[in-house]
Amino acid sequence: MVGWSTNLLFRSRKRRRRGTSTKQRCNYIQQENAQEQKEQEEEDDDGGFKLKTSACGVQPLGNLYFSSSAHNSRNTGLGNLQTLTDELVLDILGLLDATHLGNLAAVSKSFYVFCTHEPLWRNLVLEKYGGDFLFDGSWRYTYAKAYKPLAGSLNGGGSLGLKVKDFYSDYLFQSWLCANLEMRPDWLERDNILRRKGISVDEFVRDFEEPNKPVLLEGCLDGWAALGKWDREYLVETCGDVRFAVGPVEMKIDDFFRYSDQAREERPLYLFDPKFGEKVPILDSDYEVPVYFNEDLFNVLGKERPDYRWIIIGPAGSGSSFHIDPNSTSAWNAVIKGSKKWVLFPPDVVPPGVHPSPDGAEVACPVSIIEWFMNFYSATKDWKKKPIECICKAGEVIFVPNGWWHLVINLEDSVAITQNFVSRRNLLNVLDFLKKPNASSLVSGTKDRVKLYDKFKNAIEAMFPGTIDQLMQKAEERMAQHEKPSFWDSVTDTKAGAFKFSF
């Protein structure tokens, strides 16, 4: 890719340096960048400040106030487009193909920064090649190498990494920072989840499932063959050319590992496949559902049940931003390799920075998980209802009750199994969810979103006659019990006054 894109950059320089060879032009660019980097370092050290910049020189806007120059090359390089927000500029550039992006990158240093923004090239790779690509250091270089296999011969691959001076942008800098920042120790120190080992199923139901509380379970995966077998070599050998769902594409697992070894981006791709057991049956036999979650009433639908189980593989920094599990189900998540940081909020507490639509069909939240930690996590320390947090390690299982908001981020390369389920404890919640007026926009994991309620309810009544009526009766009794006034509440003001007057 670099060999191809640098040729585009050279076009803007040829008018001043006609007749120079490709090698001479490369040497000139490298010398120019080295000089600019040296000047930047001298400025950074001035007055005791160390001003952080991104790989291509982008700095946060606040650094402009400490600069000896009031010049922001972001604005001069964009010309009349400088009035647009960075997000809007990138949205517009996202409409262009690779050739036009490459040409536009040669217009100015500012356009070079915007046009080499990695998410733009990630979209181009996934749209053009699907899962048939071999990641090679950056998305831009990956695209060019797939487009022209000899690309990059000028410098042996990777990214030329031109450094732009005096470019200030909070949006672009934060994108780079989120891609390169590791989890801080103070983001990991809080661990307030209840942990249990060796409890009975009845204890689990009484203490956690019925009251709808999270718990981390230890020791219940000890019999899993997957714990000892599912390393990279085993998965690559076992899965071979089978393709797994990775974001919007499907990839061979070996190609995904090649990507995850090199990925350094704000939102790394995440292997998240609901059909892994059907695709590779031996994986299905390497684990079994923990005894606490054996009751799964969606089983009555057979092959028509919504997606419910996934194999999850991802590099450090990958994960899922805040969401509530689909179809009002509860879930369990078992870590086989690696470790995960969990943050959970109860159903009545919306996490800071998260904005669900009134009907629950859409959720607006920060672009990346790291961004949420940077901008919102500290606020939760002062909340009366603090989130439940933990680090779930290999061999441990977390129970996620229905309706709970949760965020998950891999702290290292991780492999996990997760399943959503419906038990008697949350059956009524699921039925209520499936019959909502806008269920067709809320239900997920199935093609038949409209008739799922009727199919599920009829199947439950046929398989377990009277169960729904019994659960509704118990729910009404519990509600009446909660609404029943206490002795002191039943004493009226008149009686209390008469009682007091008699003395």
From TrEMBL:
GO molecular function annotation: cis-regulatory region sequence-specific DNA binding; histone demethylase activity; metal ion binding; oxidoreductase activity
Any one Gene Ontology cellular component term annotated for this protein: nucleus
Keyword Translocase part of the UniProt annotation: no
GO BP terms, alphabetized: epigenetic regulation of gene expression; gibberellin mediated signaling pathway; positive regulation of seed germination; regulation of photomorphogenesis; response to red light
Pfam family, one: Cupin_8
Subcellular location: Nucleus
Cofactor: Fe(2+)
Protein keywords: Iron, Metal-binding, Nucleus, Oxidoreductase
SMART domains membership: JmjC
Family membership: Belongs to the JARID1 histone demethylase family.
Name listed for the protein in its UniProt record: Uncharacterized protein
